[in-house]
């Protein structure tokens, strides 16, 4: 009689043909599946060439290929449980105005709403890109916008848009380090389950402009200089890959700590140096996490000194998240509104203060809650039934 159980390698090959979300969901079928599901995910990514994407600057529709490039998965660490992505062989540095450089978005090809057809080295047609600008999401205009149905429909539609947001897709990161004029730096950005290492150069002339330039134009080449942005690698945990495959708000504990043993060591070191709070994802901490530095190394001493001097090296984004937690608002929701990401991209030159942005966010969330839970006493007074196709 044949055994009812398939060998693990056969199960892994079968799972690899499912989307990442489904492989993750099926991991608890039995113990042997749990031990191979990440290998099945790596096999799936290779089979279907599922890529990660890095885009810089404010997000627009259509996505501009010159501000985005793709990365291929090249490995999975058996001990670290970390997937590594590097730029495709056709990827070129991103050249842009320095003011555009700070905002970075990192995405995975199987996330809901991610456009995978347009990036540096591949300019295929767009398919339903997800717009990150909430100012664009509105219903109207109406011939008589004062009519109750028009007002109610607009409010309802806008609330449904924000109900359907996906944190992983809308989330932005901000480069805290940029090079001096004519300089070059290697810097890092990251999150609980993701780290990027990148290189930025200032005052760079794009290669194609050097090739196309005539000899007599060389004296004007300074006018064509940009900043360049390159990614060396992205390292992620499985929770990052899965994080954007659902429209549900995932709890913070869903995301698993990348390089947890290194963070455990750093927590021990900082506590012994009377540093009780610090930004786990500032560039200097991420650089130390990726290194092999130990307790008494010069690099470790310098990091501790830096964290003391900067009171933990917290950013304005950290301050905003802390303020949301004090108001009992889930910090993931901060990415629902594009005015928040615009403020973070250049807070020093914003026309709004931190307090104004926080107040606007709080009022927007309160309005959302009021829309989501209508006042039945007032709704009875409406002389018309609101029926929306697909929702009624």
UniProtKB/TrEMBL annotation:
Ranges for region Disordered: 120-150, 362-392
Pfam families (alphabetical) = F-box (PF00646)
Superkingdom of the source species = Eukaryota
Report the InterPro entries cross-referenced here. Answer: F-box-like_dom_sf (IPR036047), F-box_dom (IPR001810)
Q: Which residue intervals define the domain F-box in the entry?
A: 1-56
Q: What is this protein called?
A: 15248_t:CDS:1
Source organism: Acaulospora morrowiae
């Amino acid at each position: 009689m044949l055994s009812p159980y398939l060998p693990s390698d056969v199960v892994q090959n079968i799972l690899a043909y499912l989307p990442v979300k489904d492989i993750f969901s099926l991991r608890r079928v039995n113990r042997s599946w749990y031990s191979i599901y990440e290998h099945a995910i790596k096999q799936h990514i290779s089979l279907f060439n599922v890529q990660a994407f890095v885009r810089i600057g404010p997000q627009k529709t259509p996505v501009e290929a010159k501000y985005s490039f793709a990365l291929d998965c090249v490995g999975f660490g058996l001990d670290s449980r970390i997937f590594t992505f590097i730029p495709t062989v056709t990827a070129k540095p991103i050249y842009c105005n320095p003011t555009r450089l700070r905002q970075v978005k990192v995405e995975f090809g199987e996330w809901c709403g991610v456009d995978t057809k347009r990036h540096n080295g591949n300019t295929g047609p767009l398919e339903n890109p997800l717009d990150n600008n909430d100012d664009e999401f509105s219903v109207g205009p109406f011939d008589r916008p004062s009519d109750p149905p028009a007002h109610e429909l607009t409010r309802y539609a806008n609330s449904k848009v924000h109900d359907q947001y996906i944190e992983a897709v809308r989330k932005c990161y901000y480069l805290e380090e940029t090079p001096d004029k004519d300089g070059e730096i290697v810097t890092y950005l990251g999150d609980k389950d993701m780290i990027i290492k990148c290189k930025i150069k200032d005052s760079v002339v794009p290669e194609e402009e050097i090739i196309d330039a005539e000899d007599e134009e060389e004296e004007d080449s300074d006018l064509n200089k940009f900043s360049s942005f390159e990614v060396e690698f992205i390292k992620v945990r499985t929770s990052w890959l899965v994080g954007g495959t659902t429209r549900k708000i995932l709890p913070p504990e869903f995301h698993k700590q990348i390089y947890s043993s290194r963070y455990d060591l750093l927590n021990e070191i900082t506590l012994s140096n009377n540093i009780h709070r610090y930004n786990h994802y500032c560039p200097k901490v991420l650089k130390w996490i990726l290194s092999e530095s130990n307790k008494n190394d010069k690099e470790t001493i310098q990091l501790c000194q830096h964290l003391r001097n900067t009171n933990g090296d917290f950013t304005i984004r950290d301050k905003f998240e802390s303020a949301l937690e004090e108001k009992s608002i889930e910090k993931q929701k901060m990415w629902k509104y594009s005015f928040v990401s615009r403020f973070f991209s250049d807070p020093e030159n914003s026309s709004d203060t931190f307090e104004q942005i926080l107040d606007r966010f709080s009022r927007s969330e309160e309005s959302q809650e009021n829309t989501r839970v209508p006042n039945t006493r007032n709704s009875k007074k409406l002389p018309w039934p609101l029926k929306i196709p697909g929702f009624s």
